[in-house]
Amino acid sequence: MPEDLPQGYYLENFNYLFDFVGTHYADILNEREKNYLSGFSELSDNAQKLYVRLAGRRGPWFRLDKLNYVEISDIAAAVNELIAAAYLSPIESLQEPENLLKLMTKSELISWFEGANKRLSRQALDQWLIEKVLPQTLLSSVPFQIVEPIGLDILQILKLLFFGNPYQDFTEFVLRDLGITPFEKYQLDSAGRFFDARSVLDTTINQYALNDTAMDLIEQGDAQSLRQWLPSLLQFSFDEATTVRRHHRLLNRIAREFERFNDINFAQEIYLHSSLEPSRERQVRIMTKQGEIPSALNLCEDIHQNPQSEAESEFALAFATRIAKQHKVYCDWIPLSAAVPIVNFDISVKPDADQRVEVLARDWFIQQGGQAYYVENALLPGLFGLYFWDVIFTEIKGVFFNPFQRGPSDLFTPSFVERRRDKINKKLFFMIDLANEQEVNRCITDCFKRKFGLANHFVNWSWLNADVIEIALLKIPKHDLASIFRRLLSDLKNNRSGFPDLIVFPEAGSYELIEVKGPGDKLQQNQIRWFNYFQQQGLPARVVSVSWQQADVQGDEKMQLKTDIETGLVVGDTRVE
Length: 577
Prior knowledge:
The protein is an alpha/beta fold. The chain has helices at 9-24, 31-41, 45-55, 75-84, 97-101, 106-112, 122-132, 135-140, 152-163, 171-177, 198-220, 223-234, 241-260, 264-271, 279-289, 293-305, 310-326, 357-367, 379-387, 389-392, 415-419, 421-432, 437-450, 466-475, 478-490, 492-495, 525-537, 555-568; strands spanning 62-63, 88-90, 146-149, 344-349, 371-374, 502-505, 512-517, 541-548. The strands form two sheets. The protein has a five-stranded mixed beta sheet with strand order 4-8-7-6-5, with helices on both faces. Strands 1-3-2 form a three-stranded antiparallel beta sheet. Strand 7, helix 27 (525-537) and strand 8 (541-548) form a beta-alpha-beta unit. Helix 1 (9-24) crosses helix 9 (152-163), helix 14 (264-271) packs antiparallel against helix 15 and helix 16 runs antiparallel to helix 17 (310-326). The longest helix is centred in the middle third of the chain and has 23 residues, at 198-220.
């Protein structure tokens, strides 16, 4: 138990979740789930604590002689109460002896089972017992009782209702209570719940089960079994936007696996069932491999005219340009103008295996005069998160359904901007009015102070500090900030990464965004998109190519030093993605 939390804290959190689900989702719970909730509330404090303890541990079985919790005064009585109330089940028959054997040490097995050879490895000993001792004899020979919690499947459903996904759990409560990850406070009511109907809940449960099955088959690399199983996935139809996206994302994952199996024809068939990126991109690539150049170019044109994202449009144009040139095909929709080259310049620094190349480049700029900060994806998205904090956490029906959200559920969908367009436009227009500059600065700095530490998808508190915010607001024109925020808002999911590593404030004034590339490194596509935008908008941004200064190291030693430095740049990466 964390030392800073009160004894029995876990039961309070457990009951909070139960009360919340019971209040907000009573109309879509079935009778078994309602009985599970109501029955738990009638248990004694000791019985509740024991059940929560076991539900949070890795099972499925537990030895009663090993249960010892200082806050539970009478464990034996709690066990009997839980068994009587059908929250625990005593194990009386043995279908899976492996579950029993892993509860015991090797020395216990040797002492309890006649003929057990202590010279055998633990694995060999387990196998000997499974083959030589009848399952029921195994169970009756142990001097302790074994129990299994009942209703854990219901508990998973209740957590899904509360969190809206199967990935968050009671750890969120602990992190909040310890002050590690505090969350913004917003109003929760029945109108703001995630699941509006039982059908949506059941569909979601089925989807996650299907996803687990698919991932197991993919992990096994069993193409035949995956192919035979696929019709059971395709028979489902989904209507709600979230479930449709989840379904298409899984189809894309499976299709990509068949590409790796080199079964591109079958992969193409699967991609046709998905409308989610990168389905169309993969189809174009497959068509090209199959020599279907006209079809590939036609699909590229459709993507370019009706893109789902800037990245998809960019792919369609670049790929079509390349294959049209290779196959001498004229496409009137492909523009003839060449892209403007990204401004690039070189610097040379002394290698240091203990420092990232970005830090070495930052120090180089500081030596030239002025100030420089290594900020990467923290500063500009952070300023966005602070300035639009009130918009992000605006209470709209259906977007806040539990107290552990870093933003609304629609944050990374087009509906986020659509539903808040008036507020967003108002704040952007306010920002670019020079008369409001001090008020904008005050809005951001006050938010930094008031909300410090609270979870927000765009604000990485470990990278932000008051000094860099203050100088950024002083040196970056608000028109430039508004321009950057507009592109962020055009695709919050994809555009919140790819920002330059450094921000430099020369002695002469203003600012410059600097992307640092070490030897052999190159710009990623999301970085290229940001740099193209910077150039279109006239924002000061450059790429710095770093080379290592010649040191008193020769031959193999020099090459090894370079390799060590470059490898060290990846280890311990804490960047915001």
